From TrEMBL:
Belongs to the RIPOR family. The lineage of its organism: Eukaryota, Metazoa, Chordata, Craniata, Vertebrata. InterPro entries: FAM65_N, RIPOR3. It comes from the Eukaryota. The gene is Ripor3. This is RIPR3 protein.
Amino acid sequence: KSLSRSSVRSRVSLKPPKAYNSLQKGALVWDPKPLQVKKIFEALKKGLNEYLEAHQAELDYLSGRHKDTKRNSRLAFYYDLDKQIRSVERYIRKLEFHISKVEELYEAYCIQCRLRDGATNMKQAFSLSPATKASRESLVELYRNVQECTEDMCFIEGALEVHLGEFHVKMKGLVGFARLCPGDQYEVFVRLGRQKWRLRGKIETDDSQTWDEEEKIFIPNLHEKFEIKVTELRGLATILVGVVTCDSSSFFSPKPQAIVVDITELGTIKLRLEVLW
């Protein structure tokens, strides 16, 4: 094994905060998912690059105004623009560092994935060969290599989650046409891993909706999808309207995402959300 666990951890130099690390001690699950990590990495990198392009365009615009203002000698406005330019430049450098860190983590993850695949293939080949002392020793060593690569991959997955940011989810209401009547009460339950959001709403006489909460912040992770459950409240009874899951990979965008989710199979009741990354 050319890249040991300690060298991976010292090379990426990361200590994920407990609040963001889904791989806390005592709750480790050695089950890395390379395809899912690749999907989230590509979505994350695309979103970060879009942020970078937007701020680069803003910097170009401010720089042009800066030159014009300097020629016109409006001193106070000139210095105000100068402060804005410096602020945008700092943010661009921060984004560039963020992108490079994400790429470094994913590169280390891919190396460990290839090493694990190679060790797994060799382990299978040795298990089919005649049992000798040398083959048994090789199998033990290969098993150890697979375990170490798996541990490294899970560690890097936890470290990568630190760089996923936050999802600000806003409740925009239910859409149900004839299915929603004045006086109806609903409960919406949104789950992302261990994070939960439970809110209740009522259909008013003017067809508007009131909800006891409007926004919730979720910390995205690599493996969990949003699970949304809607129930109708009738006195002491509850009637399940529908349960759906929603992939979060499309939410990594600098622009707010308007999400419309079909709660019932026929789409007679929909849930409208807005997600800001």
